[in-house]
Amino acid sequence: MIRSATPADIPVIHTLIRELAAYERAPEEARATEAQLHEALFGERPAAYAHIAEDDTSGEPVGFALWFLNFSTWRGTHGVYLEDLFVRPSARGAGHGKALLAELARLCVERGYQRLEWSVLDWNEPAIGFYRSLGAVPQDEWTVYRLTDQALADLGKA
């Protein structure tokens, strides 16, 4: 079952983010607090949204998708950028990841958004194969750039 996250889900979302960071070999990078997540998802002006995948039998959360709106100047419409998609290893292969992506695709179609995009680590072959099986196409000609920490602060002072 896929459902929209509620404020009561913040602890499990926080835990799943930390599990994802460990899987992606960067646990020290997952610094978001539960308070930050609550503000981002349920504050006065939400900046992101989340869906929870629950085990059909137990009802336990087994995965999540955290996303936000982007905008395509070429298409003239919003799209969805999927920041995180994670299903616990013990629950993989049961359709939870596909169901999360299908829900986001459904939202895109319903709202007239024309893109659903995300990034995947180049070493994550299981995820790459899964995404390709759904018809997703890699955007190999694009390279993501990022400013963080001191470089971001330095540029912000310029």
Summary tags:
alpha+beta, 158 residues, globular
Protein architecture, described:
The protein has five helices and five strands, in the order βααβββαβαα. The chain has helices at 10-23, 34-42, 96-111, 125-133, 149-157, and strands spanning 2-4, 49-54, 61-72, 77-87, 116-118. The radius of gyration is 16 Å and the shape is globular. The model has no long low-confidence stretch (mean pLDDT 96).
List the helices and strands and how they pair.
Blueprint: E1 2-4, H1 10-23, H2 34-42, E2 49-54, E3 61-72, E4 77-87, H3 96-111, E5 116-118, H4 125-133, H5 149-157
Parallel strand pairs: 4-5
Antiparallel strand pairs: 1-2, 2-3, 3-4
Offer a quick outline of the entry.
With 158 residues, the protein is α+β, with helices and mostly antiparallel strands.
H/E element sequence: EHHEEEHEHH
Number of strands: 5
Number of helices: 5
DSSP helix fraction:
25-40%
Structural class: alpha+beta
Main sheet specs: 5 strands, mixed
